[in-house]
Amino acid sequence: MTDTVRELLTTLTPQAEKVDAYVADTYLLETVDHLDRLGIDPAKFGRQHSLLLLKPDAIVARAVEPTLEWLADNGFQVVGAERVAVNRHVARALWYFAWNIASPERRRLADLLVGISDVLVLVVRAADAALPVSVRLTEAKGPTDPRKRKPGELRHLLGRHSYLLNLVHSPDDPADTLREFAIYWDESRRGEVIARAEAGADGTARAREIAAELYAGTPARGFDRADALERIRRDITDGGAPVPADLESDADCARLLYDAWAAGQQLDPWSVLVLGSHVLPMRIGTGPQTLRPVSAKEWLEGPL
């Protein structure tokens, strides 16, 4: 079985270290086994489909409609749309092989973010091409770092807010796509999602319905750092604690958050996310992720 999965993985990713990591990964194995039992070729399904996660910050930003329009304009078809409840465990499963470099502050903010709302997960497909759908979508979506985003990319369109509040996520390659199917959905629900994806019917209307449900339960909020700081000032003073008058630097604002957390003060989660994403460290050390990102160039030219 291991040799068979390893052989399959060599068709799903060009990265040898990912093959080694995923050959015994429970999420990847669940989806591969499920597709096999359904009579669906995992390699073909993984190549033809990808997932696009609209995170809680995308729900707050009312970003669903611009995303749907961008997908259509860039040749991607939505063939599934699902509302998914998320928590700290889902976040850690999704980014398990990248979070070895995440700072404690980044993990804390991520745990706040998943408490803001449920998420919308889109199943996406596109015409066959030299690159798998997941690789094409990730390249077109744009990087995590807002300073590196370019016009035409989805993340540039949705707003260059901060490194953490990047609104959307998609798997790097087909191996990641199959793995994430089992993170989001149990077997029963996953079977329904796979069936709809295989049928290929347009899922845009369903995505809009879910967006309306999510918006109804999640207030729209702004991403302005100054507004977030003002709200946190008010929360702290309302709690009876003093707030320094001069909070101009990132270090001063970070200290304000650290002190409030240490004192157990109740702060507006969204304002903490906005301010914290600007002033708190997002990574530790200078080492690489456990598994580095996979690029389109690597797919076309072979391992780096």
What is the fold's blueprint, element by element?
Layout: H1 2-12, H2 16-22, H3 26-37, H4 42-48, E1 49-54, H5 56-60, H6 64-73, E2 77-84, H7 88-94, H8 104-114, E3 119-125, H9 133-141, H10 154-158, E4 168-169, H11 174-184, H12 187-199, H13 204-217, H14 225-238, H15 250-262, H16 269-279, H17 296-301
Antiparallel strand pairs: 1-3, 1-4, 2-3
Helix pairs in contact: 1-4, 3-11, 4-11, 8-16, 14-16, 15-16
Protein name: Nucleoside-diphosphate kinase
Keywords: Kinase, Transferase
InterPro entries: NDK-like_dom, NDK-like_dom_sf
Q: Which fold does the CATH topology of the largest domain refer to?
A: Alpha-Beta Plaits
**Total domain modules:** 2
- In total, how many beta strands? 4
Residue runs with pLDDT of under 50 for 5 or more positions: none
Strand order of the main beta sheet, please? 2-3-1-4
> What spatial form do the alpha-carbon principal axes imply?
globular
- The topology string of helices and strands comes to HHHHEHHEHHEHHEHHHHHHH
Percent of residues in helices comes to 40-55%
Strand content: 5-15%
CATH hierarchy, class of the largest domain: Alpha Beta
CATH architecture of the largest domain: 2-Layer Sandwich
InterPro entries: NDK-like_dom (IPR034907), NDK-like_dom_sf (IPR036850)
Organism: Nocardia arthritidis
GO molecular function, one term: kinase activity
Protein name: Nucleoside-diphosphate kinase
Q: How would you summarize this macromolecular structure in one to three sentences?
A:
The protein has 304 residues and is α+β, with helices and mostly antiparallel strands. It is built from 17 helices and four strands. The protein has two domains: 1-219, 2-Layer Sandwich (Alpha-Beta Plaits); 225-279.
